[in-house]
Design brief:
The protein has nine helices and 17 strands. Helix 4 crosses helix 5. Bound molecules: zinc ion (2 copies).
């Protein structure tokens, strides 16, 4: 197999020829058809997350086809089209797993972070954490749903039912979640980098009723807001934009430090929460609503060997929608 592997943090990925991985009992091997590039991959490569396995093959928005299985892979078989998400395995017996919050498991494995992921021609996954996908579909268009979509969905649920919702950072996740929020009948207010007219036009095209720079105040008070950009300075701005009792959700795995802010921004029962990882139940629910919403993802394709270019474009904010690697 071929893979783009990270050997040391801060270095570019290197194209490697590796032996084909063998699925152990309970595992499947998947021939990768497409793998999305997520901001979390940047955090892994840049060394912003602790305890990364090295060397590591990043990538956790994987769509592919099972081409080998170990024993006991319940309901899965060679040839099936599947998705492999960030949540790679959980322990099943810690207090969080037992209370249905496996996203917070004490002893988890994460795809492309603590176990090898999808920047490769092949990947092995624990069959219990793999999502079955419809037999036919556009693999490249589907890949961003595996994290931007899924974690975006979890953050939307946690934001609550408020009608007026703000999305800070209009990248891969927001462009999917804006469509879901519109389908739910909400009003979407999009916040972008200062002066990013292209992202603002993109947000309006996807149904946002207002799209401006993140330092601008929306014309109405918002009920809730989700911050997708890894920028701590957005936290006080989002708190300022929500009404009394409103909620601000931080959806990323890493954020720059949050500047201090006056208590009056949090006062009156405003809430500030974070979203971590996903549960398999999130995936089951999300993939049920995907066809109902008719989500259309905007993607930019890169060959697998150009993974470093895809990461650079994401880092520089040069992408509209989501980058997807195709082996
Ligand atoms: Zn656990
Ligand atoms: Zn991700």
């Amino acid at each position: 197999m071929q893979a783009m592997a990270l050997e040391a943090q801060g270095e570019p990925l290197k194209l490697k020829q590796l032996p084909d991985p063998r699925p152990a009992d309970g595992e499947v091997r998947v021939r990768v058809a497409a793998c999305g590039v997520c901001r979390t991959d940047l955090h892994v490569v840049d060394g912003e997350l602790p305890n990364t396995k090295l060397p590591i093959v990043p990538g956790h928005e994987i769509v592919g086809y099972i081409d080998a299985t170990g024993a006991r892979v319940d309901g899965l078989a060679v040839g099936m089209r599947v998705g492999i998400p960030w949540l790679g395995r959980t322990c099943g017996h810690c207090p969080y797993c037992r209370e249905g919050r496996e996203n917070l498991c004490d002893d988890p494995l994460f795809t492309g972070y603590t176990r090898d992921g999808g920047f490769a021609t092949h990947v092995v996954a624990d069959s219990r954490y793999v999502f079955r996908l419809p037999e036919r579909g556009d693999d490249v268009a589907t890949a961003p749903l595996l994290c931007a979509g899924l974690i975006g969905w979890r953050s939307l649920v946690i934001a609550g039912d408020g009608r007026k919702i703000g999305l800070y950072g209009f990248g891969a996740a927001a462009h999917i979640i804006a469509q879901v929020a519109r389908w739910q009948g909400r009003d979407v207010f999009a916040f972008t980098r200062t002066g990013d007219a292209a992202a603002q036009a993109f947000a309006r095209k996807l149904g946002a009723c207002w799209a401006r720079s993140s330092d601008e105040k929306p014309p109405e008070e918002l009920d809730c807001a989700i911050i997708y950009a890894p920028v701590g300075a957005l936290v006080p701005l989002a708190l300022r934009a929500v009404r009394k009792g409103g909620r601000v959700v931080c959806a990323g795995i890493h954020m720059s430090d949050i500047p201090s802010f006056p208590y009056s921004l949090l006062w009156q029962e405003r809430e500030l929460v974070s979203v971590a990882n996903l549960t398999r139940k999130d995936g089951d629910t999300f993939f049920t609503i995907v066809p109902k919403v008719g989500i259309v993802t905007e993607t930019v394709r890169y060959p697998l060997s150009k993974a470093n270019e895809a990461l650079s474009d994401l880092r520089a904010g040069r992408l509209q929608g989501a980058a997807v690697l195709v082996p």
